[in-house]
Amino acid sequence: MPVETTSASQPPFLEENLLALESVNPAAARMIRRAAPPDSSVPVRGRDGVATYSWTEPGGLLRWLGRSSMPSVSAPALIDAFQPGEAGILLYSMGHGGEIALLLDRIEPFQAIMVVEPAAWKAGLALRLRDFSEALRLRRLLVFAGDTAWDALGEFLLENPGFLEPQRVLAWPWFEPETISDISAQVSAINQKVNQRRAEFRSSRKSAQRADGVASADTTALRLAIVAPTPTTRVRRLSHVLCAAASSMEGHALRLVRDDPSCAHPWSIEDALARFRPSLTLYIDAGNDAPPRCPISVAGLTTHGPVCVLSRSGTVAEEGSALLSAGAWLAVPGEKASAAALAAGAASERMLVVPPAALPIPRAACRSTDGRLAVYADGACASAQAAGLHLATHLRIWSVAEEIIRETVDTCRPDSSLEIVQKAEARLKIRLESVEVRAGIAERVRMRLVPRIVCESYLVALVEAGLRFDLYGQGWRDHPRFATHYRGEWPPPEQLGETLPDYSALVYIGPGEPDAADDFTSPLLDALAAGLVSFVRGTPQPTRANEADAAVEPALHAEQFNSRRELISRVRSYLSAPEAHRARAKALAERIQCQHTWHHRLRAIMASCR
Are the CB atoms for 163 and 112 separated by under 8 Å? Predict the structure, then answer.
């Protein structure tokens, strides 16, 4: 078959990838640099038009990188059929690299892909085609190359006890039974050795701890451990805020959140806690919707001082319940969560109400001169497949529900999701027999479909109005209309004080209702605490008698809008005469900073959890 050689040179990914690999595995980086591909290897376009490589083997046999002439077709098919599990993943051969890119988007942040590539030059070709530098630096992708690749993988796991050992192997279609058997034997031998050594280390560490005692060397400074086994977006944001707050109080903070493969093994987390000896441990519970996948022992968490479980909903997953049974405190952000906790059997005498709080960041004067807005809108993937729906009837209901939401964007709210599903049934002239199934679809509509469509519609209105804005939140990186506006999830705590003054105002679109009393922190609260004028989609709420409470309910202090037309009108009116709005925003920010920062909340928690 004729091979079409590309006229353009390949993107310069190789050097960036090797520099990133060098910081983690310098031996593999050196081996790949030195490994020359065959003289016959050439950059080509596959049958699907995707950049790849081919070469001619002795005897005239044409080979493609990854053994596929259509990598954009073969890679999705292979990954869709693969179940990655919740531990490490092993690939024997790097393939074309497209499979790895897809897999990185599917696995959890604490999982690592471990590539064993005996032919180092093939790894070099794959690293020329894609930018894996971030995944390599974060150690979500580990590459071991050459004849000693298996030994190097075993040594790495022994030297890095925080990584989960590989338990799933991606089997390439060309694997023969003997190859699969050899790979399984290698993986089993490595895991057996690693687990044995880790168990021995754990035992010796516990003996040393018993001999050394558990008292902290410094009994005056705050030593805050932040533990979170399920790193959702909310959990990650709260953990960073807590860490920054502790550091600004001249305390010591240890962040043990499973968004890093190097801190994923439960034993390594327990060991880090033992060495740190916290004076207070805050355990962030993601709730029953996201059960923890890290079986840290209760003793491993409660041995070194008081533990407080943070729950935004008031209900906790199994591990959080075990901690509460062992005497941990429970902290909730407001009355709604408090009532849920009491209904679930929480002990009122060990429950704290910890209202939403802001970081005590310095407030710089507004520097914006071009009317640029910060826009926060979360829009998770709203496909039926992403929501876990596959039956034909459920797919039809999902499609009609999407039509209904688009027709009623300005009045649609997440809490109307059940009504939306019922209307979809009526339009289709069908009825779901199971109440549980209907409720399940409605919950998916509430969590995914309503926020995505509402946010997207308001963002389109901002674009069409010609307003300048930077977009924050999830789900927009590759959106054809918003990708150029996208700046990430939300500025990290250390950047908030510098980033927010660059904007004239914040527009908060979603997800759902902007009720910060249902969480410990929020982008809307960050903006108000920094003195930024804010606009929020929602219904005006009654003014509270207690101004201290009102100061931490951002929706009470933001400019309300209830339609796309009203949003554009209010923003334009503000930009034409901002002075009065900014004076009110400055006064509110001063009140929040004086009464409602994480300095205040941490002191209150420490005083209660003695």
Answer: yes
